[in-house]
């Protein structure tokens, strides 16, 4: 492992996301997966960057009771922010269509909040990426939803999938943040943990 300071820890990724798990593996980290089962509700007064940080901490707190002395819990939550509101995971086909129509031909932000927690230390941080979509046709939206079923993705899309190839013409910030894990920023914080 490149990060020798982490050898004393048992890393726990509190996420069922296959994308987050793959990015952590690609970073060369050995970890166990223990998804945190929490209701993702947050106080209405929280702002764009505070919401995903709050939810990431909520996930860590859910595992706190079972935390071992050498455990380091890593949690993340990603939101899509458009017109001063959160676009979460769509619960059905129509919601996915509505979300993608709202993103079509416009700019939005993707924010991932992260929380690292051991018995003796806690750190929260976030990453913001600006994303621009071309105009999407109804046929493109319906094809994507029918083929890729983006119901587990904030904003109803995955940048690494077909819709990202044909629809996203520009980003400012981390590509991996839009996938759900700002891996470069996470690495920097893990180096200092």
Automatic annotation (TrEMBL):
The keyword Cytoplasm applies. It comes from Mangrovibacterium diazotrophicum. The keyword Endoplasmic reticulum does not apply. The record marks 19, 78, 160 as: Important for substrate specificity. It catalyses: UTP + H2O = UMP + diphosphate + H(+); dTTP + H2O = dTMP + diphosphate + H(+). This is dTTP/UTP pyrophosphatase. One of its GO terms (molecular function) is dTTP diphosphatase activity. Its EC number is 3.6.1.9. Keywords: Cytoplasm, Hydrolase, Nucleotide metabolism.
């Amino acid at each position: 492992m490149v990060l020798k300071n982490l050898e004393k820890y048992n890393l726990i990724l509190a996420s069922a996301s296959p994308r987050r798990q793959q990015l952590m593996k690609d970073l060369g980290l050995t970890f166990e997966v223990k998804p945190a089962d929490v209701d993702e509700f947050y106080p209405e007064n929280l702002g764009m960057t505070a919401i995903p940080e709050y939810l990431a901490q909520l996930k860590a707190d859910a595992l706190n009771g079972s935390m071992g002395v050498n455990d380091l819990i890593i949690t993340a939550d990603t939101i899509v922010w458009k017109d001063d509101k959160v676009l979460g995971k769509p619960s059905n086909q129509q919601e996915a269509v509505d979300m993608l129509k709202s993103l079509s031909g416009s700019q939005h932000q993707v924010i991932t909040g992260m929380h690292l927690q051991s018995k003796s230390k806690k750190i929260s941080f976030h990453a913001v990426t600006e994303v621009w979509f071309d105009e999407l046709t109804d046929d493109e939206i319906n094809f994507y939803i029918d083929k890729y079923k983006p119901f587990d993705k904030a904003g109803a899309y995955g940048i690494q999938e077909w819709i990202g190839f044909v629809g996203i013409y520009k980003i400012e910030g981390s590509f991996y943040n839009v996938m759900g894990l700002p891996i470069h920023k996470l690495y920097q914080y893990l180096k200092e943990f």
